[in-house]
């Protein structure tokens, strides 16, 4: 898996964010979490990261802060899982949940997920790298035209 080390705005320490086309993982000194998903889920995760980054400036001066969630099947365990992203502390908070409990509220503490909160610049670096990976793997799967 590819990955980056970022400064976590909430923990005030370094965290790792690792990814492949069909997996995502967060790690910190004493904690880590990983999920596996389909390529379509990878594109959906990329899309909500892009939406949160594009939303900056549209929520200034308001109480509303967008929170976007993508639910998917964790192929590692076969359970329902989720990826949540929102603006937080001037950065972007990403929450990864391996196994969802039957609840409408996706707060990580209630369902055993792990969150990392990184700067918007770091989130852009991550998003750009993930986009490049997904786009390069998609183009390599295109069949050559037949004559």
Structure summary:
The chain has helices at residues 39-55, 108-111, 120-140, and strands at residues 2-8, 13-20, 23-28, 31-36, 67-74, 79-88, 91-97, 114-118. By secondary structure, the protein is an alpha+beta fold.
- CA gyration radius, whole angstroms: 16 Å
Distance between the termini: 37 Å
CATH topology: Transcriptional Co-activator pc4, Chain A
Number of domains: 1
The coarse overall form would be globular
Q: How does the major sheet shape up? A: 4 strands, antiparallel
Q: Helical stretch count?
A: 3
Q: What structural category arises from helix and sheet content? A: alpha+beta
SSE arrangement, N to C: EEEEHEEEHEH
Number of strands: 8
Q: Helix fraction?
A: 25-40%
Which sequence of strands runs across the widest sheet? Answer: 1-2-3-4
Average predicted confidence as pLDDT:
83
What does this structure look like?
The chain has a single domain (2-135), classed as Transcriptional Co-activator pc4, Chain A (Roll), CATH 2.30.31. The chain is built from three helices and eight strands; from the N terminus they run ββββαβββαβα. α1 runs antiparallel to α3 (120-140). The protein is α+β, with helices and mostly antiparallel strands and 147 residues long. The protein has a four-stranded antiparallel sheet with strand order 1-2-3-4. A four-stranded antiparallel sheet has the order 5-6-7-8.
């Amino acid at each position: 898996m590819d990955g980056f080390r970022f400064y976590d705005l909430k923990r005030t320490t370094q965290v790792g964010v690792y990814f492949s086309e069909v997996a995502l993982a967060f790690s910190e000194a004493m904690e880590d979490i990983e999920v596996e998903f389909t390529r379509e889920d990878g594109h959906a995760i990329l899309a909500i990261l892009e939406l949160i980054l594009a939303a900056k400036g549209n929520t200034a001066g308001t109480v509303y802060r967008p929170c976007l969630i993508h639910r998917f099947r964790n192929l590692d365990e076969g359970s329902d899982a989720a990826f949540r992203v929102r603006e937080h502390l001037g950065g972007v908070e990403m929450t990864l949940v391996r196994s969802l409990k039957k609840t409408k509220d996706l707060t990580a503490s209630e369902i055993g997920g792990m969150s990392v909160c990184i700067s918007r610049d770091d989130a852009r670096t991550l998003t750009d790298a993930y986009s490049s990976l997904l786009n390069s793997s998609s183009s390599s799967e295109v069949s050559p035209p037949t004559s």
